[in-house]
Structure formats: C-alpha cells, structure tokens
Amino acid sequence: MTNNNPLIQVKNLDLHFGAFHALKNVSVDFHAGELIGLVGDNGAGKTTLIRVLCGIYTPSSGEVFFDGRKVEKFHPKLAIDQGIETIQQSVGLCDNLSIARNFYLGREPLKRILGIPFLDFGTMREKSSRVIRQFGLRENVSADDEVERLSGGERQSVKIGRAVEFKNRVVIMDEPTNHLSVREREHVNELAVQLKEQGLLVIYITHDIFQVHKLADRIVIMENGEKVADASTDSMTAEELEEVIRQGGRVVEKREAV
Amino acid sequence: MKQLIQSQGFGAIVGVAVMLAVFTVIDFSGWWTVQTVSNVTQFTAILAFVAMGQALVIMTKEIDLSVGSVYGLAGVAFITMEPTLGVPGSLVLALIIAAFAGFLQAVAVVKGQLPSMIVTLGGLFAARGIIYVWTGGSVHNFSPAARSHPLTRLLGGELFGIDAAIFWLVAVGAILSLVLWATPFGNRLLATGGSRESAESRGVRTDRIKIAAFVLCSLLAGFAGILTLCNQPQTHVTLGENMELEAISAAVIGGCLLSGGRGSILGAILGALIVVSFRYELIALGAPSSWYITFVGVVLIVAVIFNQKLARFLGHSV
Amino acid sequence: MGLSAAKPLIRRHAEIGIFLIGAVLIVIFASTSEGRWANLYNIGTIMQMTATLGLMSLGVALVIGTGEIDISVGSTFGMGALTYLWLAAHVDPSIAALAAIVVGAAIGFFNGLLVTWTRTPSLIITLGTLMIFRGIAIALTEGFSFSIPYAARKGWSYFLLGGDVFLGFNTALYWLIAVLVVLMVMLKAMPFGNRLLAVGGSVESAHSRGVRVERIKLSAFVLCGLLAGFAGTLEAGKLGFADGSMGRLMELQAIASCVLGGCLLAGGRISLPGALMGAFVLSSIQSYLVVTGVQPQWFVLILGVIVVLAAYGDKSLRQWALRK
Predict the structure, then answer these.
(1) Which ipTM score applies to this complex?
(2) Which of A112, A115, B4, B263 is 20 to 30 A off residue B61, Cα-Cα?
C-alpha cells in the first residue's frame, strides 16, 4: 500500500511555549494509506505534534513537508485546504452556534442571490444532520440546536461526522473514542480502518496502546516531547510497546523496510 | 543579574534611569531645579497612591476603572463635610465612603460574578454622578481654620522642605510591599491572580482576597484625594477625571501584568513617577493642555504593549 | 409552568428582557409625565437620540460579538462629527459624510490592528485611543469653530444626513433601520456572521476550523468605528455644530445599550434589535429626566447604576433559562 514518498514528513521539529519545551527534535514520516497509532501518556506531546500538523501551532524550528513541499506558513485554513481534517479533543465546537453552523464553520455552503453570498441553510441542515446521525446523534436533536446542549458523545459525533464529510487526504483523530459508548467506539474504529483502505492517511491518537495496536499499521510512541519509538505493529507486540512506554525514554527504531 | 531583570519592577527602574538621563541632557525647562523636583515628586506621590491600589487589583486579575471617581468623591466628601464634622471627622467619613465604594463594587464582581471591567465602569460613572449631584457643580473651599488644622498640615504640609505626601508614600509603600511579599495575605493575593482554581484548591478564599484588594484600592485612591485637597483645598466636579488611566498606566509601566499574578509596589510608584514627569515635561514644552489627554492614551497603549512583549520575552505565558 | 415554557425562547432570545423593560417604562413614563413625555415632538426627539446612539450600539455589539470591546466609540463619534462639519463647509455634505465615515473606519482599523497584532486586552487599547482622539478633538476645536449656520444647511444632502425631518422623524432614524437590516442579514445569513459569532464563542475552535480570527476581529472593529463615525455625522448634521467634548459618555451608553439588549460581554451571543431597544430605553430615561425637570446630572449616576444592574440582570436571566 505505502509508497516511498511520505505524505507528511516531519524533520527535527522543536516547539517552545515560553520556557516550556513541548516538542524536542521530533522527526517522523507518515505515508498515504497508513493507519498510524500515536501513543503516549498525557503531556507526552502527541496533541502538540498534531496541532502543528493541522496548523494551529507554528513550530519554533524544524521543517514539515506535505506531499514533498515544505510547509512555509502554518494556519488551520491552509491545512484544511490541503485536505488535512482533524478531530480535535477539546476544541473544534463553538458552544454558541447550532450544529449545522458548527459543521460548516469556515467552509459554509453558499447560495448567491444577486451575487451576494448567503448561507445555504437547506443544505447545511439536511446534510449535517444526515451525516452526524450515523455517529450516534439522537433523532430528536435538530441541526438547529445549539451545541451547548449536547452531551459529550453527541459533541464527539458532530466532530467525527464533520471530519468524515470533508475528508480529503489526511484524517487526524485525537482520542476519538472519548465519551462514546461501546458500540459507537467500534463504529469509529471500523471507520478509521475504512478511511485507511480508501487510501487516506489516518493518524489515530490515544493513550491506550492495546486498542490501537489492533487497528494500526505502525505505532509511534512519544514521551516528554520526544519520539521514543516508531515500529510497525508486525514487528512489536502491544505488550512490548507498552514496556517502552513504561520505561519512558528508551529510544527504539525498529521498522521494516518499506 | 537575571533575577534583577526578571523582577517585576525592572522595566520601570530602567525607564526612570533613561528618562532622567534624557531630561537632564535635553533640558528645556530647568529639570533639576527645586521647583520642578518638588512639583514632580508631589504629584508623583498622589498618583502613586492610586497606582499602588490599582496594582493590587490588577494582581488579582481584575481591574478597577472607578479609582479616578472614587478619588474625586473622597476629596469632595472631605471638603464638603468639614464644616459639620471638623477635619478629623470628615477625613474618616471620606475614607469610609471610599472603602464602601470599593466594597460595593467588589461584592458585585465577586458575588454577582460580573466582569470587573463593566462593574467598575459603572462605578466610574455612578461615583462621578454623585459628585455632580452632591456639589451641584459648585466649588467648595476650606475655611482658614481648617487649613491650619494640625491634621491638614500633617497630610498636606511640608517637613524639612519636603511635601508630607512623600513621607506618607514612603511609609504606605513600604508597608504594602512588606504585606505583599512577606505575609500570607500577599501570597494568597498573588496566587488568586496567578491561578484562581489552584488557589481555591489550596483553600484560599479568593472572593475575600478580591474584596480586600478592591477595598484597599478604593481606600488608597480616597486617601490620595484627601492628600491632594489638604495641599490645595479646593474641589471641582472634574477632580480626578482620567486619573484611572494614569493609574493603570503607572501600574502597567511598573510591571503589573493584566493577566494577573505579577506586579510590584515599587514598580507602580516608579511608573507614577514616569507618567508625572512626562506630563510635566509636556507642559514645560508649551503643548496645549488638551494634548495631555492624548498623551496619557499613548502612554497607556505603549506601556501595555511593551510590558506584554517583555513578559513574553522572559517566557511568561501572557 | 407558564414561565418554564418560556425558557427555551429566552435561552435563544435574551433580548426579550429589554423589550419587556422597554414596554413597562413606556407605560410608566407616559402615565407620570402629564403628556410632556408622550407627545409627538418628544417621541421624535427620543427617536433621533436613539438613532445616533443606536448606530454606535450596533457597532459595539459586533465587537462584543467577537469577545472584544470598544470603548473608544465616544471619541470616534466626536471625530466623525468634526470631520463632517469641517468638510461640509467646503464641499458637498455627502462627500464630507463619506470622509467622516472613512475617519471612523480608520480609527476602528487602528484599534483592531493594535488589538490583533499585539494580542493586548482590547479594553486597555481602546481606553487609550478613547483618550488619544478625545485630546485631538479638543485640540482641534481650540481656536476653531466647527459649525454651519442653519441658513446654509439647505439641499438634499443635508436633508438626508440627519438635517431634517421626514414623515415626522429625523432622517437619521431611517438610516438606523437600513443599517439594522443589513447587519442582521450579514450576521444571521452570511458566512461572515457565522464566523464572527464563532470567534466570540471560542477563539480556539474557530481557529482550528480555519477561521481567520484576526481578520474577523479587525473587520468588527472597522465596522464599529465606521458606524460611530457615521453616527457622529448624523448628530452633527442635526445640530450644525460640534465641540471637542462631543460624544463624551456615549461609549458608556453604547456599551450599556448592548448589555441591556442581551449581548453577552464574553462574546458569541449578541442581539442587534436588543441593542437598539437598549439605546431606546436609555434615550427614553434621559428624555424623561429632562421633561420632568430632574437635574440632568442624575443621568450620569443612573447610567452607572443601570450598567451594573443590566449586567447582573442579563446574567441571572440566562442562568435561569439554562436551568432545566
């Protein structure tokens, strides 16, 4: 499935927040058609790394290549336009807006009347509710309801539905199964595999190595802002990888030639 | 050295040094004369009182826009009530009024959970409105007897040729610094501004701390108003107008971060010195008085931006 | 039971509170002033006051919608009035009005640029610019008079720009209605409005969805300055003169209107009709004090108290509506 040119290539990435060194010289390649498990304890730098990839943070130094081209400017708009869709963990929904408005935020469908761009409310309502229902939104919740009133799982389903609807080349999922029921969790995991099989790059972030080991082609482990392991799931078992996390810091680079 | 740079008042110390050097070299008005220095220090002392109170409130991550009006209200109360209550009585009453104004606003902020900005903006106008209604726009004066009252002399007179306000400032400034750095109250005040949740999780009653900060701030502003009027016993409805801006500028120049938890009393005093010196220099240069308002606006913006950049440079998350 | 049925409605429309207050005040004022308040002439005056204050409040509401605040509008209003009067003496008033609007927009741009570039609290920045432009306005009016005699104010441009009455109301009122309609459509039915409210709701979330947060905030400040400049133009068009203190306290009235009208200071939830109703209520109170012979100084005091009470009332109403 994978070819030799990585879709996303991260080289010697460093990121400082004030005095805090959040990412330390991280280098990693991601290929199209791969499902990557990005694993680590809380505060290990997983979320920080993917927030660079989806343009929220600008790195202090180091380079990111997307499809062979160096990324010069970091902004979520550019990342989304390039086809990188992200399910963020704590951000992504504005409580004060309706489901439909959140769904299409930043990419609102337009209906031009006299050349003036108006929102296409019909499309927004109909499509967003249809997509989100697949991921556990109750029937009695309307697309016009404010997100503030939704439960944690329903909020998650809005984010997942949105990523699936706009998916293009990369889908990044940050703890996607949080707040979900067992059935919804399975559905999301199946979905991640499906997306991969469609040729997309899927980066799946979790702290549960056993959950993602079953799905992923490759596991990348982060610890204290550093990449400490990068191994295919064929070459290392979940137990071995868990041991790496437990020892925290022993750098392993064991990966089959691609 | 690094510790010195990171101390909150450092920017202000450098600012004062540079400013004094510049005013010495480019000397239009006779900077180092007894007259100038005495005027500048007198006004600095008054503004510094208001700025110190403001600094305390900013350290708890709130803001008090009403200090100019409270300053004016205390001053007006002091002068207006003097014929009936005498100097000591009206002094106490003026301070009580000031403290009460601070307390009311603090309760609205803390118990009503409202943004301090909007509450004190309302307080700014309410207190100013009381001044208008109370005085009816007329000017009040002290009687000759009240002017020579020992308490008036103690607050507004001179000692060894130095204005009494300076001695009061040194005393109060030293006490406040001590309270801030060496008492549990100071520690809790800074913790409240730095991280309210953490402070609360350690059992700090952050609402009480905030109320105390607001009351102290209004008390200091009221005291500054009384000091002013002991020196120049004449009220005016515009007494203390725009003073909140000067006070915030001084506190910010002195290293108070608007994001709370950081600041220094010494910095606020030096910030007041900078603001007053520039005002004096501007007048000495012959600029029309209205430019002074513009100037305060510029100083405020520049101070905030500079302070923020400095804080980011030092690695604080702002 | 009846009240709890209204909860969902109030949750969405916090401005209902101000419309009720407005209705109650109208009844009280009309019945206690022996016809001095509720007559056509006085209502016309209130409408004119509401129009200029309302235009400013709409702009401030947009800025509040992004979670920022603009308290420099009082000075922007004054600068707009001075620009208009200075130019109207030389060129056609319509060009002068355009220039005043550009000046207002430029001040708004300056505010927005400082806020977004330096990431400094907008309260402090606009407090600074409030002073800066107030000082400039006073300096400009020292030694110069900014007035156009009534006899010289003839023609269509003067008529349209607040100089005269149409169908019983000052023409400023019709501008206000037009602006309200345009802004409502922009806010509710266009991507700009969606993004503006998203920025106010959660900067991080809006940013993560590719919204250019800085640009949205900047445009809100520009719109706010523009409307304040235009409000100054209309006020100057009516009065025919202006001095350096023109627009003093207007910034507080504009913010009070917004808070009264159910705009959440934290951002993300605003109501433009509510802000207008707030402006109407404040203008009504001011007019009531005048016609009943109360010292006008009381208005400053009442205004300060109203701001705090409105903020508290709005918060309580919302909390009540959110409770299940």
Answers:
(1) 0.80
(2) B4
